[in-house]
Amino acid sequence: MSGLFISLEGPDGAGKGTMLTHLMPILKKHTSRTVVLTREPGGSPIAEKIRHLILDVANQEMTGETEALLYAAARSQHLHDIILPALAKDQIVISDRYVDSSIAYQGGGRQLGTDTVASINHFATGGVLPQLTLYVDISPEVGLSRIKKYRDTPEDRLEVAGNAFHDRVRATYLQLVHDDPQRIVALDGAAPAKELTAAAWHEIHSRFPQFFPA
């Protein structure tokens, strides 16, 4: 890849969205390249339709297997519609969630097995992974309480999955950090937003100074 691909990960309520609000202007200030912000599930028209299907609270009978396959399908479409074309143009792609989310939420949370979900997503993405993944860590109790306190939109189908589910999600994320420390860096989601943003910017700039010479 001639561009730069960075993903953001974390349990629900970790503070990724707030961090992005502060981080995007910094990235754009220090580079002449186009910075593309996208998200999963979704990010492109077909993938957004799949997102609605997955997160709709009316679909409580959806099996874990169906959920995992739908996420992989949305990711495949998103990758080919948004991420790969941007990287081919030497752009910087910031994706709010990517493969690690599926491994944590479906592999760990839904207990489908991390290897199984990783294999499904390897097929869906052709093995394309970010050069850097920033994992914002927070306890499920704090994260879910933030959602209830500060967000004015209804909880989605995964957010209402229960405490044990979210405990497994976080434990799986922490295992991924342990297993792939060269790619995945853990940040403290309990830190103030400015400190969290500064830590994210430090990791990005120190690893890829050639993309941010300004």
UniProtKB/TrEMBL annotation:
The main enzyme category here is transferase
Record keywords: Transferase included?
yes
Which CDD domains does this UniProt record tie to the protein?
A: TMPK
Q: Which InterPro entries match?
A: P-loop_NTPase, Thymidylate_kin-like_dom, Thymidylate_kin_CS, Thymidylate_kinase
Q: Which GO terms describe its biological process?
A: dTDP biosynthetic process; dTTP biosynthetic process; dUDP biosynthetic process
Q: Which reaction does it catalyse?
A: dTMP + ATP = dTDP + ADP
Enzyme Commission number(s): 2.7.4.9
Q: Which GO terms describe its cellular component?
A: cytosol
Q: Does the keyword Kinase apply?
A: yes
Molecular-function annotations in GO? ATP binding; dTMP kinase activity
- List the Pfam families hit by this protein, alphabetically: Thymidylate_kin
In terms of SUPFAM superfamilies, this protein maps to:
P-loop containing nucleoside triphosphate hydrolases
Residues covered by the Thymidylate kinase-like domain: 8-196
Q: Which UniProt keywords apply?
A: ATP-binding, Kinase, Nucleotide biosynthesis, Nucleotide-binding, Transferase
State the protein's purpose. Answer: Phosphorylation of dTMP to form dTDP in both de novo and salvage pathways of dTTP synthesis.
The similarity comment for this entry is: Belongs to the thymidylate kinase family.
For this protein, the record's HAMAP family field holds: Thymidylate_kinase
In terms of PANTHER family, this protein maps to: THYMIDYLATE KINASE, UMP-CMP KINASE 2, MITOCHONDRIAL
| Protein's name in the database | Thymidylate kinase
Q: Which organism is it from?
A: Schleiferilactobacillus perolens DSM 12744
Q: Source taxonomy lineage? A: Bacteria, Bacillati, Bacillota, Bacilli, Lactobacillales
